[in-house]
Amino acid sequence: MSRPAKSILVWFRLDLRLDDNPVLTRAVETGRPVIPCFVWSPEDEGAWAPGCASRWWLHRSLDALGESLRERGSRLVLRRGEAGRVVPDLVRETGATAVYWNRRYEPWAVGRDGAIKRRLIKEGIEVKRFNGCLLYEPHAVRNKSGGPYKVFTPFWKACLQRETPEPLGLGDTRLRSPNRWPSSPGLDAFALEPRANRAAEFPHWWSPGEAGARERLERFWESGLADYATERDFPARDGVSRLSPHLRFGEIGPRRLVAKAGSGSGADAFLRELGWREFACHLLYHFPETTDKPLRPEFAEFRWRQDKPGWSAWTRGRTGYPIVDAGMRQLWRTGWLHNRVRMTVGSFLVKDLLIPWRDGARWFWDTLVDADLANNTLGWQWVAGCGADAAPYFRIFNPVLQGRKFDPRGEYVRRWVPELKLVPDKWIQNPWQAPNTVLEEAGVVLGRDYPRPIVDHAEGRRRALKAYDLIKGSSGAAGA
Ligand SMILES: Cc1cc2nc3c(=O)[nH]c(=O)nc-3n(C[C@H](O)[C@H](O)[C@H](O)COP(=O)(O)OP(=O)(O)OC[C@H]3O[C@@H](n4cnc5c(N)ncnc54)[C@H](O)[C@@H]3O)c2cc1C
Predict the structure, then answer these.
(1) How far apart are CA 475 and CA 466, in angstroms?
(2) Which atom of ligand 1 is nearest to the CA of 242?
(3) pLDDT digits (tens, 9 = 90+) for 268-280
(4) Mean pLDDT throughout 461-474?
């Protein structure tokens, strides 16, 4: 009688897909039985455990992955608890002789996974790790002196000189099952779903899962990619891919995007944005403290303000600056925000209100369906001027000018701030400066239907520059 084949535990993490997934392809190629599993371990992630919007997404993405695995004759085994305990337990329980996973690069994951790897190897278990979510892993890209990059352009140039990795197909292979499946609770046991109504509109905007990612990709490829370079800055238009949550949960991988993108100005501009994603991960890996501390040390002394009313107005989209309010309301209702508007609302919080960037990062962490520790940290440090290759602190976004330039007809503002629907284009970004007759005709009473600005931008800007002078000793202010 032949001995049962030695199975491989395939530990899914932020790679919730079958296509172009090295961990799965390589396990299947061995011909051995495969036990796919997912461990919900928020305690491992500590302060950066997935926020409310991410948990909503994760629930659906796991559901979709489970279904795809069932179609291949397999299952997704779910477990809850610290991965350092749960994974070795599962190995013992199933008799698996190998564990495969794709690497993650968050500081908490690097330490945890290293410890799990050492422990399993000590117990005689084979461990294999792969690159599932990046084009170029952070430890593989080095500058001339062997250190990490801090500036995007040379980083991306160095990446582009490397071989572009090809996606891995799985074909329509069925997965070989173990003789006996370990038990698995239902997905509801993870209690990922947010409280009633919090995510009521999300299903209207999103289809989590690999099929949803593919659909989104096809749509963008047909109607958006060619004009991406010129359209990507206008939040009212359909000019960006909205692939970020799918990329975040690994429902699609960047190798697939590169293979499909081809060439042309739209494709080049799009790949450059994927380059920023790579750069963010590179920075987080090499400078893990930046989730909480500014990369530029002089900013440790920066004098932020406590401003409860300002914070409340910002989070609720009631600052009196239409583009900021439109953004904050879109974020709350859909779990996503256009990059141009992320920069504008971020600048408003950090510079006009002088509220710490970390508070903004925390809010985004809870409200974004694409909340990603690397991208979010890079984005907020960029906005605050204290990170790598960041906007200089003295470049302060003027929310009215940003609105006029990138939402010239006010379509974006009207979509999310309907009380201003009838305000003419000329005043839609600055209604408080409109003549009374215009506001009357538009049916808007400021202070009743829509707030007056909570801070005068010119005054806020002066205050921010003064605070900056204290750490820098110079300003050289400029508007944008
Ligand atoms: C303050 C701030 C916070 C941010 N927080 C996050 C976050 O938590 N998660 C997140 O995925 N992105 C974050 N970004 C980056 C960017 O805004 C989003 O990736 C982008 O808006 C997502 O929309 P999209 O998929 O349509 O992007 P597209 O324009 O279609 O770009 C394609 C992909 O490239 C990547 N990308 C694009 N721009 C950037 C960028 N500036 N930095 C890093 N990667 C980028 C994303 O994976 C994106 O899906 C943040 C930006 C700022 C300014």
Answers:
(1) 8
(2) 26
(3) 999 999 999 999 9
(4) 86
Q: In this structure, how many other beta carbons lie within 10 angstroms of the beta carbon of residue 113? A: 23
Q: Each residue of 176-212: pLDDT tens digit?
A: 999 999 999 999 999 999 987 899 999 999 999 999 9
Answer yes or no: 432 catalytic: no
Q: Tell me the DSSP string of 78-109.
A: EEES-HHHHHHHHHHHHT-SEEEEE---SHHH
| 228 ligand 1 Cβ < 6 A | no
Provide CB contacts within 8 A for 15, sequence distance 6+.
21, 23, 102, 132, 133, 250, 253
Q: What is the CATH number of domain 133-169+210-286?
A: 1.25.40.80
The domain 297-479 is placed in CATH, from the list 1.10.579.10, 3.40.630.10, 3.40.30.10, 3.90.1300.10, at 1.10.579.10
Mean pLDDT, range 131-152, rounded to an integer: 95
CA separation for the pair 349, 457 (Å, rounded): 12
Q: Tell whether ligand 1 has an atom less than 6 A from the beta carbon of residue 241.
A: yes
Q: Which residue has its alpha carbon closest to ligand 1 atom 31?
A: 273
Domains in the chain: boundaries: 8-132, 133-169+210-286, 297-479
pTM of the model: 0.96
Task: Using a pLDDT cut of 70, give the percent of the chain over it.
Answer: 98
pLDDT level of residue 262 (50, 70, 90 thresholds):
confident
CATH of 8-132, one of 3.40.50.620, 3.40.50.300, 3.30.70.3550, 3.40.50.10490: 3.40.50.620
Ligand 1 pocket residue status of 367, Cβ below 6 Å: no
